[in-house]
Design brief:
alpha+beta; Jelly Rolls; eight-stranded mixed beta sheet; DIOX_N; IPNS-like_sf; oxidoreductase
Length: 372
């Protein structure tokens, strides 16, 4: 492992770079990520992590308690319960774009082991992590810091690994041993939950329960995941754990630990999504907003940096990896359109949207550029 002195030298070298691109490359070349800076004893964050102040205030009320927590117990067995859940999901998707689910069928032991698996990966020896550090998205497993490192106006205080887990790309041995088994188990569990969620979302649109699943767009064809590690930040007021953004996929299922920091933008205020034990956060993605012609909302959200603790989370994206090469056309669902509700978005290919989303980077709202 590199010594603290060597890490400190890297930080000084980055801060002394003549231009931003050189500074970014110096950081990238360490392959140590943000955690490498923290391990090196950094007390002042490099300027490339500075974020401008956000114009929206934090909520000073208890509005966070209004973010729906939906109980899925009995949703596959009791028709009355199912109708109640469908109604709540409809309201949450149209109003908040976010909701949390309990009694979702994934054992608490699996959730805890998944969080521990993320932590084990990021807290192992940096020399081991360097072997899978890459910006080549065609690899079955990659780890890096800030996927949009060279296009973002301000970096986020986090490191990330990414892989497609359902179906698995490559061999199980391509996944790190420290989290291999739990990644596969967790992915299979999330897929079962996702199928249920897409059925409930279809019904909330007054469509057949299999409507979204049966579309040729591949809403439930695969899951890609991003495991995030947010080290303690010496100057959290100057940066962000994750800058404000919406998700480019159809749907996201998020597992977060107990630290907190996730916020959603609602009525021009940032509202906390406080962690609830054994609960998963679900949010609508850009492509589902496009499909529903603005009925469901893909809402901007962010993660605050914090000074005292490391935070971990794992986001499971439905329909994300396949977007990169899919030439399938996506446009508002015809059954939802009428003379009073004409199409609000241009028809586009999924690949075109995915490429545009990546090129814009986090902190932008690419869906707005596809409006008619």
């Amino acid at each position: 492992m590199e010594s603290e002195e060597a890490e400190g030298t890297i930080v000084k070298m980055m801060n002394n770079c003549d231009d931003r691109m050189s500074e970014l490359k110096a950081f990238d070349d360490t392959k140590g990520g943000v955690k490498g800076l923290v391990d090196g004893g950094v007390t002042k964050i490099p300027t490339m992590f500075y974020h401008p102040l956000d114009k929206f205030p934090n909520s000073s009320s208890t509005e966070h308690s209004l973010i729906p927590v939906i109980d899925l117990e009995g949703v596959t067995k009791d028709p009355i319960t199912r109708q109640q859940v469908v109604s709540r999901i409809r309201e949450a998707s149209e109003t908040w774009g976010f909701f949390q689910v309990v009694n979702h069928g994934i054992p608490g032991s699996v959730l805890e082991e998944m969080k521990e698996g993320i932590k084990r990966f990021f807290e192992q020896d940096v020399e081991v992590k360097k072997e899978v550090y890459s910006r080549d998205n065609t690899k079955p497993f990659i780890y890096n810091s800030n996927f949009d490192l060279y296009s973002s106006s301000a970096l986020n205080w986090r490191d990330t690994f990414g892989c497609q887990i359902v179906p698995l790309i490559g061999k199980p041995q391509d996944l790190p041993q420290v989290c291999r088994d739990i990644l596969l188990e967790y992915g299979n569990n999330v897929m079962k939950l996702g199928i249920t969620l897409f059925e409930l979302l279809s019904e909330s649109l007054n469509l057949h329960s299999n409507y979204l699943r049966d579309m040729e767009l591949g809403c439930t064809d695969q899951i890609s995941c991003a495991g995030h590690y947010y080290p303690p930040c010496p100057e959290p007021e100057l940066t962000m754990g994750t800058t404000k953004h919406s998700d480019g996929a159809f749907l996201t299922v998020l597992l977060q630990d107990h630290i907190g920091g996730l916020q959603i933008l609602h009525n021009d205020k940032w509202i906390d999504v406080h962690p609830v034990p054994e609960t998963l956060v679900v949010n609508i993605g850009d492509l589902l907003q496009l499909l529903t012609n603005d009925r469901f909302k893909s809402v901007q959200h962010r993660v605050l940096a914090n000074k005292n603790d490391s935070r971990v989370s794992i986001a499971s994206f439905f329909g994300y990896n396949s977007l990169a090469s899919s030439t399938k056309l996506v446009s508002p669902i015809k059954e939802l359109l009428s003379e009073d509700n004409p199409p609000k978005f241009k028809e586009t290919t999924i690949a075109e949207y995915a490429a545009y989303f990546r090129a814009k980077g986090l902190g932008n709202n690419p869906l707005q550029d596809f409006r008619i």
